[in-house]
Design goal:
8 helices; elongated; 197 residues; two-stranded antiparallel sheet
């Protein structure tokens, strides 16, 4: 079985980004015509389009594409969702995991849709704080659950590779709505259940 690429990139956008990458390489003192760099501008252009494809997607619509009637009213948690995003301040990656929970109020969604919502907002230029809130709000708006909880833990390469160069620093952000805000017991149960032991 042969391997086939499935990504589709706009050739005009790819060429435009690649021309700028080539100029940046020259400004850095590199020779973009040397063998190892000949295809780098195009590769970077395609990479950036892939890493920011979330701009063309809607987290709310992803959830709405798979909503089911269900009387279940206990916590639903999808934890340890791998997450990759790009810091909007330095265009460097931050990598980590998201933990997402909601308490249904007559409606549930497919579990994979929760992970897709994380990807949708992560694949944009981001700050972790906004990313956390956008995931919460999309699920809240689409499902109207009793509450939503989101916690993200991530390592930012803008802190590990440059700047303060603190390789073990992990940033944790949280966003809650509904019963997760009003009930300490519910919020504490969620935080206990996402602990990695």
């Amino acid at each position: 079985m042969s391997y086939q690429k499935t990504e589709n990139y706009d050739p005009v956008v790819t060429a435009e980004i690649a021309s700028h990458v080539k100029a940046v390489l020259k400004l850095l003192g590199e020779d973009p015509e040397r063998e190892g760099l000949l295809k780098t501008p195009e590769r970077v252009a395609k990479s950036l389009q892939f890493l920011t494809q979330g701009y063309g997607q809607s987290g709310t619509e992803i959830i709405r594409s798979a909503i089911f009637d269900e009387k279940y009213k206990q916590m639903v948690i999808v934890k340890d969702i791998e997450m990759f995003s790009m810091c909007e301040h330095h265009i460097l990656p931050f990598i980590g995991k998201a933990h997402v929970a909601y308490i249904p109020d007559g409606k549930i969604t497919g579990l994979s849709k929760v992970a897709r919502v994380v990807d949708t907002y992560a694949r944009r230029l981001q700050v972790q704080e906004r990313l956390t809130v956008e995931i919460r709000d999309a699920i809240q708006e689409a499902l109207h659950p009793l509450g939503v909880a989101v916690v993200i833990e991530a390592t930012h390469t803008c802190m590990t590779m440059r700047g303060v160069e603190k390789s073990n620093a992990i940033t944790t952000t949280s966003a809650f709505s509904g019963i997760f805000l009003s009930s300490l017991r519910t919020r504490s149960e969620f935080l206990r259940l996402i602990e990695n032991k």
